[in-house]
Amino acid sequence: MRRRTFIAGTGALGLTAWGWPSAAYAAPIGSGWTEISPGYTVHQPPDLTRHTYDAATGEHHFWLYSTDPSTFPGQDSGPRSELRFRNDYTSGSAQFECDIKVAAGAHNVCVMQVFGGSTWATAFMTLAMNTNSLHYYDQAQIYGPIYDTYLRLNVVHETGPGLVHVFVNRQFRATFQDHGAATHYFKCGLYGRAGMASRNDAYIKNVHLYQKS
What is the pTM of this model? Predict the structure, then answer.
């Protein structure tokens, strides 16, 4: 089992000084951000369709079966139905924001990640678990319940101190240490893990990416 570094308590982080509000509207957490539109690539299992996009509603639908083959054979052990954003960064801060809905029964699938690290492949991952909750990897619970309802998810990565801050519905939930300097970028959707449910579905819309130096 991976060992986590969890930092709790808003006072220690100076969240009040950062001015992170709790109002439920589409805007970055904090000030000084610039919104970017870097585009994305869709990752799916070879020769399979596991993602659709409804232009009328702006909703992405992702689904995976436990029997789906690896998206990148020989490179990892799981199938993916993900958006890989082309927001590659090595310094400064980056923020991911979206509305996400996880269908009941989804288990042990990553729904959002900050890729890149010197000791791990990723700086941060949040998994949907069959406890009806989001977890940091397969460890600490971040938020629940999650099934069948849209939640606002904001993930802020500060590369300087190496911290990842997580907010659900504009409320601070936790801070985690990242896993070292690297080229980072965001991914969202579904990334299947060993022991995942037989079918997993997630819906994502209102995606916004921000950066600041």
Answer: 0.90
